[in-house]
Design a protein that fits this description.
Blueprint (H helix, E strand, L loop, with lengths): L1 E5 L6 E2 L3 H14 L15 H11 L9 H13 L2 H7 L1 E2 L3 H9 L4 E5 L5 H9 L24 H14 L8 E5 L2 H9 L3 E5 L6 H6 L4 E3 L5 H7 L3
Amino acid sequence: MRLVLWDIDGTLVHTAGHGRDAFGEAFTAIFDRPADLSSVSMGGRTDHDIATEILASAGVADGHTHVPRMLQELGVALGAVRERIAEEGHPTPGAREALRAVAGRPGITQSLLTGNIEPNAELKLAAFGLDRFVDLEIGGYGSDPHKARSDLVAVAREKAQRLRGVSVDAADTILIGDTPLDIEAARGAGARAIGVGAASFTRRQLLDAGAEAAFDDLRDTHGLMLALGA
């Protein structure tokens, strides 16, 4: 049995910038002033970490105490633009076909490992009808308790065991993502990593970061299945 865990943003979907904008909306909802997001890097990070940085850069005293409210407002803000995400965003090339192929393969369970809070992860996939291919209940999310993103691998494995009776070793867990931080999270947890260089990083950069295989995008379904050992 293998557990395949997908990153979302840049790997499976593009949300036309609405995911980033939602952080600004969340901050404004709490503090009634805009947040400067220009220097905040979001790729490969958890929503918890991003919210913490935004609060710190805005000079909010005891910013960590506001993180739960920020994440709550983040869900509200993204939910308000769900239709715009569906209209203006799009799945990455080959994402739908890749998810369908993995979902149809015996011996593989697929879910998510993403920095998104759980409601936003589901929303982003559902906007394009991709949610039906993955078991959302056993994913690792930015809203799960964690200290580092690599901790979410164990979170997902524990959920798979507890909720589905699926026991998978770290070595049989495969993360698929588009940033070196995704690759680092996999390696830090003893899992395998596959890179998809369709967003900010190239295939070569992801291989150099430690991915055991990498693709320019997800259109090479056959190559992906071979990399998964399927």
